[in-house]
Amino acid sequence: MNAFKPLVLALALAIAGGATAHGDTDHANKAGPVKKEQKDWGIAGESKSVKRTIEIGMSDAMKFTPDRIEARLGETVKFVLRNRGALVHEFVLGTKKELDEHAALMIKFPTMEHDEPYMAHVGPGKTGEIVWTFNRAGDFDFACLIAGHYQSGMVGKVKVVAVAATAAGIADMTDGEVRKIDLDAGKLTLKHGEIRSLDMPAMTMVFVVKDKRMLERLKAGDKVRFRAVNEGGVFTVTDLEASK
Prior knowledge:
By secondary structure, the protein is mainly beta. The protein folds into two domains: 4-161, Immunoglobulin-like (Sandwich), CATH 2.60.40; 166-242, CATH 2.40.50.320. It has three helices and 15 strands. The strands form three sheets. The chain has a five-stranded mixed β-sheet with strand order 1-8-5-2-3, with no helix packed on it. Strands 4-10-9-6-7 form a five-stranded mixed β-sheet, covered by helices on one side. β2 and β3 form a beta hairpin. The N and C termini lie far apart (54 Å).
């Protein structure tokens, strides 16, 4: 930890004990229509369009878990934000330039409130949600902009990648054989070939699935093709089909 971090942590604790950034009201779950405004990093999404849910933990160690996310161009993601700490935290999507500018304002005006569809302010032990459509490819950021938190390194990265064509999507699927199914836990054991997108050799391993309904018609011995991603160290099957 560098010499600056204890100072900003002390500032964060002092704010939490007095006038909390944005006030003391938790406004993580917004009511009413969502304002849709195109940003460099995407646009507010519709719940009915959600393709994937990503849970992100927020801690008083000034960390997000996971702090690296990959999304596909055009994908609508629901972020479920769990504050596991004793301090208020927030999750704000943006570019580094935008976040730097906003963080500077938060130091200057620590009690100001803001409410945008790409941010959630989450109280201790509470949960917030954001639904966001990544309709721009590129490398983006997320952060907690509460004074002291951002300066302590409470940040993460989002990489939005374009899939050139359906053929490319098919090509990145991997052949596998079902070895074991745990419907209650939403887990699937697969003997699989090389997963090039993960730089993973052929092996037998346990994956979680993004939707337990994927497992309902499977049985041990079935041949499948699947796509998997690494979400903060959790290997997750996002697409699954019977092998032809």
